[in-house]
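Notes taken during the Thursday session

The instructor put the following on the board and asked us to keep it in front of us for the whole hour. The protein is Protein arginine methyltransferase NDUFAF7. We were told not to look anything up and to reason only from what is written here. First, the residues (453 in total):
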Amino acid sequence: MSSTMKALVSCYVPAQRFVRAASLPVAPPAAAQRRLWSSSSSSQNKPRPSLLRHLSSKIKATGPISVAEYMREVLTNPVTGYYVRNNMLGPEGDFITSPEISQIFGELLGVWVISEWMGAGSPKQLQLVELGPGKGSLASDVLRVFAQLRPVLGDASVSLHMVEVSPALSQLQAKTLTGNQHQEVETEDELVYRRGETGTGLLVSWYHRLDDVPKGFSIFLAHEFFDALPIHKFQRTDKGWREVMVDIDPEQPDQLRFVVTPSPTLASSTLVQADELRDHVEVCAEAGVVIQQLARRITEDGGAALIADYGHDGTKTDTFRGFKGHQLHDVLASPGSADLTADVDFSYLRWVAGGGVACLGPVSQRTFLKNMGIDTRLQVLLRNCTDPSTRKQLISSYDVLTNPAKMGERFHFFSLLHHSRLTKPRTPEGLKLEKKRSPAPLPVAGFTQLTFS
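Then, after some discussion, the predicted structure tokens were revealed:
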């Protein structure tokens, strides 16, 4: 491990809270690879007939709808969408994510952010932007690292920017990050819809869209964000690529079914790459738009993006799934009552990012966290912990995050960087005067195999 990374990982003060207060339930069956530790109340198990009626009416009026449109309605419909509910996160909700399992996860991502800020030359401005911040746990852990490493940040202007479409979740995030020090912005022409201030005086702003976040050097975090974006599904046929759509089952009018279009659609004609070898492909056009936005901002203003999600590198085919109550759930049954997801195709993200930015990964979560020094951090916490129960939870959460049979190999990390981040400074040409040796770029934490020296 480099001296810089070793110092960052081990020097910040061990926090009083080692793991989340929630106990870790038993892992689900091996087939349930999307969400770990789901739970649902009896009320959540009830069908959402109003959303089904809404979808049926739309299909009767306009014909079969794309999987992307179906997924968008199910997850984000402003009345009955799955993400409109405010209780799907945490031990009492429908799933628990890595930041909820252990604070070490968020702390190491905080170290990554500071490492990349330093690798960019320690600019005077640092905007931390999180896409889909959940309960705010990840941002909270990152900001705690910022506070503990404030001397490293020096006089840099640091601010937090949350891109969140759910009003209910934004309130939950604000409570986590600012307590009661936040308020809604009522002016219609304001891009910010909520503002707050953390206990350390750091300003926090909420936006509905990434484009609304102010320009400037930014480091973007997207944890379990892309896998919830709507996908199009395509099937190779004897007549070429055709799109898979959602239709009403004519034999059971109260149920939905998948159908394949008899002729090409605009999506099937434009989204499938010409050299595609798979017979079934899922393409997330919205993810492509977000990646291009991130790439443009990084190219123009500097910074980096770290994406952490379930995914693959262009190898899988049908990954569209629903999850409810620890089990796989039929994606077309009781729309709005279960989480819908599809693995992120990182090869597609790399392709749409283009040549304007450098792409690293994907690497497994196990590889990334070990490269970040999770073993070192765990030993620091264990040395400072004497409570047997807490020590047991520390070891258990470490196992969940890194064990290949749990989250270690299912979760992957992918990064977008400014090209200058990986380029060694050029040696000036001209007279052969004595010069100081130009430093080589810092290795990119998490994506580089670091060793103790």
